[in-house]
Specification:
alpha+beta; four-stranded antiparallel beta sheet; about 140 residues; 3 helices
Length: about 140
């Protein structure tokens, strides 16, 4: 018989692991209900493997100002995709963005007559897939 790595047959241990996930989802639902979540879409992330997290805008006059992750008041961010979403606490997202900014992973989106140009951090999707340990970690 093949042993599955990470399998835990003890009921009390397995229940606690499930409760951690349930508490996490409950926290997300509370954030949604209190409008403490910012939802973004990145239509190219499935191709590039990166999320573009805006931190600065340049208006039509060339004036730069903080925006996006730099100015958000939301407790959570959600990145929406065709078949689901990724949720991340803003404090963790800010730290990830600082880390990848320092590595030079910066992108730009040019302005158009309808929208301002922006600068953003190119955050690998894999950076958000670190596993769940307990709420707040």
């Amino acid at each position: 018989m093949k042993t599955v790595t990470g399998y835990e047959p003890r009921f009390d241990f397995d229940v606690r692991r499930g409760q951690v996930g349930e508490e996490y989802v409950g926290t997300l639902l509370e954030a949604i209900a209190s409008d403490s979540i910012e939802v973004k879409t990145d239509y190219g992330s499935h191709i590039t493997g990166n999320l573009y997290v805006e931190y600065q805008q340049t208006n039509q006059e060339g004036i730069e100002k903080p925006s996006g992750i730099s100015t958000t008041a939301a407790q959570w961010w959600a990145f929406a995709f065709k078949d689901g979403a990724i949720f991340v606490e803003t404090s963790r997202l800010k730290q990830l963005c600082r880390d990848y900014y320092q590595q030079g992973r910066i992108g730009t989106r040019p302005g158009t007559p309808e929208s301002n140009g922006t600068k953003g951090v190119l955050l690998p999707l894999t950076a958000l897939a670190t596993g769940l340990t307990s709420h707040g970690s």
